[in-house]
Every structure is written in C-alpha cells, then in structure tokens.
Amino acid sequence: MARKPRLAAGRARALGVATRGTTNPNRLRRVDRWMTGTLGGFLADAADPLVVDLGYGATPITTVELASRLRVVRPDVRVLGLEIDADRVEAGKAVADPPFLDFRRGGFELAGARPVLLRAFNVLRQYTEEQAFEAWDTMLGRMAPGGLIVEGTCDEIGRRCTWVTLSADGPLRFTLACKPSGIDVPSDLAERLPKALIHKNVPGERVHALLAELDACWATAAPFAPFGPRARWVESARLLRERGWPVLDDRRRWRLGEITLEWAAVAP
C-alpha cells in the first residue's frame, strides 16, 4: 500500500512533502493577475509587504514572475519562495535578489515567516481532504494579522484554474478562471478544483450545483458565441448572478475569464 503523505516535520522542521515540481513560465499568470487586480489595494496598505510563494516547484520562475507582477502595486514588496526540496531552494537562490526576492527551505510552517499574503498553488492536491484542511489551519496560524492565503490548482499551462481565498476566519471566496476559448463548457474546470472541493463535485453538493448552473448559463449564452468566447463567458457570469448566485466583481473582471463567488455558494 502506498504511504500517505504526512504533515510531520522533516529535516529543519519543514512541514509537508515535496510536490511533483511541475512548473512552466507564465503558468500562474491568471491567479497573479487576479491578485494584483483584486488584492492590490490590500497589499498596498500592508504595514509589512511580505508575500510567500509556497511550493514553487522544480524551477523558481513562477516566484520570480509573482515578484515582478506584485511590484506594480507595491514597489517595495518582498517575496519569499519556500520549498521543501533543498535542490529547488538552491535553484531559487541562484536568481535571488534579497531582500526583495529570496528563497528558503520551508513548508506549511512557513519557515518562521509571517507574510501578509501567501500563494500556494498545486500544493495540496497530493494530500487527503483532512490533511489539506490541517494545512490550511497551520498556514493561517502563521500569517501576519489580517493576512490572506490564495490556495488553488491549475493545469500545466495555466489555462484552467480555480482557487480559494482564506483569512483567519476561514474561506472567503472561490474563483474560477480560464481561457474561455479553451473550454467546451465551464464544468471542464472541475478537474482543477482545489482539494477542499474536488471530491465534492457530486449531486447534492453546492459546487456540483454551481458547475451545472454555469453550464446552463453557458448554453443560454450561445447567441453571444459569434462575438467570441469572452463575450459568451461574460454573459454566462451575468446570467449566473441573475439566477441568484453570489457572483462578485463586474464585466471588467469577467472579461478576463474569471468568476468569483462568496465561499458560502460552494462550501461543502
């Protein structure tokens, strides 16, 4: 029987196990764009603009990209990439620019850092649901007061993504993001649901109802297809809100292939 991943402390007390390490340049552009657009004001107002990128993978490219993108809203932002695998940390240090961009060995304990914002992408899929929730609690307990976590999953080239935004009070929002021309129906994103939801995509659960409703809105929005997939996605988001779902934001963000809802809409 395969051994289950453990959250036990390992060498240097880094909590967790190494991910597969799969990464590609620009893979996390959609979540980064959402963070700068939606959380930019939050970061700009932070007393200490420390951001952690947890589990960046075999190369540090997505951490480097995150730092570059966040500087647009906070020029003095400090980004710390954390990895459990020592070789990956060394690869990061080769491109480090401390204190603005640095790399360290660490896991869910955040290596002693107290960030105001944390991105953890494609990290929790290898754990059980119970372990994923434990990881949430561990990370939240180490954030700066008022800090936020963005935790989610995407495909290998970043065209299908979902994520959860969390605070010390728990999950706040759930976001779906994609390249609208790269899907047949919105429920194609189901395979990239975060660990907290992926096993809940069954009849009777809210996330299943959401995806079914969004597919129905996509079908209703078919007359917008001649204007392009983005226009059809925007109309689908508008219809979803019209049908009573707590859809946030407006057409400006919907046109980017995003739909964000209050967490209560999908909470298991």
Summarize the structure.
This protein has 268 residues and is an alpha/beta fold. It has helices spanning 29-38, 40-44, 61-70, 86-93, 129-140, 195-198, 206-220, 229-242, 251-254, and strands at 50-54, 78-83, 101-105, 117-121, 148-154, 160-167, 170-178, 258-262.
Fold and architecture overview:
With 268 residues, this protein is α/β, with parallel strands linked by helices. It folds into 2 domains: 146 residues, Vaccinia Virus protein VP39 (Rossmann fold); 79 residues, no CATH class. It has an 8-stranded mixed beta sheet, sandwiched between helices. A hairpin with a 5-residue loop joins β5 and β6. It is globular. InterPro entries: SAM-dependent_MTases_sf (IPR029063). This is Methyltransferase domain-containing protein. It comes from Lentzea waywayandensis.
| Distance N to C terminus | 29 Å
Could you give me the name of the CATH homologous superfamily of the largest domain? Vaccinia Virus protein VP39
CATH topology of the largest domain: Rossmann fold
Mean pLDDT, rounded to whole units? 94
Q: Uncertain segments of ≥5 residues (pLDDT<50)?
A: 1-12
Could you spell the SSE succession in H and E letters? Answer: HHEHEHEEHEEEHHHHE
Principal-axis shape equals: globular
Radius of gyration equals: 18 Å
Structural class by SSE content: alpha/beta
- Tally the beta strands: 8
InterPro entries: SAM-dependent_MTases_sf
Organism: Lentzea waywayandensis
Protein name: Methyltransferase domain-containing protein
